Write a sequence for this structure.
């Protein structure tokens, strides 16, 4: 498992936190450690899900993910 904190632009409330949390929990191989306004910390299995797929799930909820300059 790899651990990453993804910075997420566009989040401003509890609804945003809930939406991102649900989207991330729905992905195989993802363990959501914390979701807060502006970020999500997760552990994920790169053999089951890519970081690009994780970002796509966040974007599908209407937010803009970034991490480590990506």
């Amino acid at each position: 498992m790899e651990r990453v904190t993804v910075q997420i632009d566009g989040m401003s409330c509890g609804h945003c936190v809930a939406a991102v949390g649900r989207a991330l929990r729905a992905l195989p191989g993802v363990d959501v450690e914390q979701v807060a306004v502006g970020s999500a910390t997760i552990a994920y299995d790169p053999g089951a899900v890519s970081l690009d797929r994780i970002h796509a799930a966040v974007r599908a909820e209407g937010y803009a993910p970034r991490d480590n300059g990506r």
Notes: The CA atoms of residues 21 and 35 lie 6 Å apart. The chain has one domain: 2-66. The radius of gyration is 11 Å. The mean pLDDT is 94.
